[in-house]
Amino acid sequence: MRVLGIDPGLTRCGVGVVEGSVGRPLRLIDVNVVRTTSTLPVWERLVTIEKALDAWIEEHRPDAVSIERIFARSDVSTIMGTAQASGLAMVVAARRGIPVALHTPSEVKAAVSGNGRADKAQVTAMVTRILRLDAPPKPADAADALALAITHIWRGGAHERITEAQNKYAAAVAAAGRGTR
Amino acid sequence: MRVLGIDPGLTRCGVGVVEGSVGRPLRLIDVNVVRTTSTLPVWERLVTIEKALDAWIEEHRPDAVSIERIFARSDVSTIMGTAQASGLAMVVAARRGIPVALHTPSEVKAAVSGNGRADKAQVTAMVTRILRLDAPPKPADAADALALAITHIWRGGAHERITEAQNKYAAAVAAAGRGTR
């Protein structure tokens, strides 16, 4: 399974691709930060982000996109741009039919470090270890995008299997219901 | 000048097209509300809004798109969806090279009614009068989109003329500077 993690932001939008599956070593495919200049109008910055994310999906063909879930009570100075970048990230994936998943920062921290309140340095250290890298990923603020991708492979996989099992169960119940009529 | 006004929202996104110019009667071209179901995932709702706005631009070929400026301190329960819908509206226009303008609710109220604190009924009444309609526009919550389009024709035109004049002045100053060297 190949997952594109996106840490949305208007000034810096982290992107990271990780490949692997639950119980097997994960592999870093690519990582970077998409930057836009704050002097440009918001819509030009958003178009730049859209093009960059489209190019990443085009190149890496992820099976799923994992995006940080944003809350209305986050940092007010950046919340609008972050919300807009996250919405755009969802659209870029969804209009291609690629499954989208949102994970909260504490879910991500818990998944990679076992501690939902881990700090940035701990998350980076764990991402480095999980992906068996010689050095922390660069740019430094791209580690969160990789953590989002890792979280989705580890949690998302489980989610999908549960959903699949539920669907099969529901289908079996429906079939049994039809059989007894 | 033909302007598409967009009152962004995830559940209801108002769209209205108005044609005309400063000092001449304005004409209603089309108005509606794009609705999405709250039970669907956010990304599917955003893709629906993107497709609808794309279709409106394709059909009406506006010279500019006028979108309500959203503030981080707006209603917390809807701010995320509203921010995402507004970002998407900007992108849909900007990636086609159509000029985007943001107008605050008080700018819109002041432009159509002369009062920045006008209530919804007053705005609807003024939009109905300005566009010389026999009855208030329907759906009722689409009046804001028309007010955004009207505001842009009345204010945006002036803005553009000022910007043009400033550019000409700057060019003249630069030319004069080169001449004396």
TrEMBL record, chains A, B:
<dbReference type="InterPro" id="IPR012337">
    <property type="entry name" value="RNaseH-like_sf"/>
</dbReference>
<dbReference type="GO" id="GO:0008821">
    <property type="term" value="F:crossover junction DNA endonuclease activity"/>
</dbReference>
<feature type="binding site">
    <location>
        <position position="141"/>
    </location>
    <ligand>
        <name>Mg(2+) 1</name>
    </ligand>
</feature>
<dbReference type="GO" id="GO:0006310">
    <property type="term" value="P:DNA recombination"/>
</dbReference>
<feature type="active site">
    <location>
        <position position="141"/>
    </location>
</feature>
<dbReference type="Pfam" id="PF02075">
    <property type="entry name" value="RuvC"/>
</dbReference>
<feature type="active site">
    <location>
        <position position="68"/>
    </location>
</feature>
<comment type="similarity">
    <text>Belongs to the RuvC family.</text>
</comment>
<feature type="active site">
    <location>
        <position position="7"/>
    </location>
</feature>
<dbReference type="GO" id="GO:0048476">
    <property type="term" value="C:Holliday junction resolvase complex"/>
</dbReference>
<keyword id="KW-0540">Nuclease</keyword>
<keyword id="KW-0238">DNA-binding</keyword>
<dbReference type="InterPro" id="IPR036397">
    <property type="entry name" value="RNaseH_sf"/>
</dbReference>
<keyword id="KW-0233">DNA recombination</keyword>
<dbReference type="InterPro" id="IPR002176">
    <property type="entry name" value="X-over_junc_endoDNase_RuvC"/>
</dbReference>
<keyword id="KW-0234">DNA repair</keyword>
<comment type="function">
    <text>The RuvA-RuvB-RuvC complex processes Holliday junction (HJ) DNA during genetic recombination and DNA repair. Endonuclease that resolves HJ intermediates. Cleaves cruciform DNA by making single-stranded nicks across the HJ at symmetrical positions within the homologous arms, yielding a 5'-phosphate and a 3'-hydroxyl group; requires a central core of homology in the junction. The consensus cleavage sequence is 5'-(A/T)TT(C/G)-3'. Cleavage occurs on the 3'-side of the TT dinucleotide at the point of strand exchange.</text>
</comment>
<feature type="binding site">
    <location>
        <position position="68"/>
    </location>
    <ligand>
        <name>Mg(2+) 2</name>
    </ligand>
</feature>
<feature type="binding site">
    <location>
        <position position="7"/>
    </location>
    <ligand>
        <name>Mg(2+) 1</name>
    </ligand>
</feature>
<keyword id="KW-0479">Metal-binding</keyword>
<comment type="subunit">
    <text>Homodimer which binds Holliday junction (HJ) DNA. The HJ becomes 2-fold symmetrical on binding to RuvC with unstacked arms; it has a different conformation from HJ DNA in complex with RuvA. In the full resolvosome a probable DNA-RuvA(4)-RuvB(12)-RuvC(2) complex forms which resolves the HJ.</text>
</comment>
<keyword id="KW-0227">DNA damage</keyword>
<keyword id="KW-0460">Magnesium</keyword>
<keyword id="KW-0963">Cytoplasm</keyword>
<dbReference type="GO" id="GO:0006281">
    <property type="term" value="P:DNA repair"/>
</dbReference>
<dbReference type="InterPro" id="IPR020563">
    <property type="entry name" value="X-over_junc_endoDNase_Mg_BS"/>
</dbReference>
<dbReference type="GO" id="GO:0003677">
    <property type="term" value="F:DNA binding"/>
</dbReference>
<protein>
    <recommendedName>
        <fullName>Crossover junction endodeoxyribonuclease RuvC</fullName>
        <ecNumber>3.1.21.10</ecNumber>
    </recommendedName>
</protein>
<dbReference type="GO" id="GO:0000287">
    <property type="term" value="F:magnesium ion binding"/>
</dbReference>
<keyword id="KW-0378">Hydrolase</keyword>
<keyword id="KW-0255">Endonuclease</keyword>
<dbReference type="GO" id="GO:0005737">
    <property type="term" value="C:cytoplasm"/>
</dbReference>
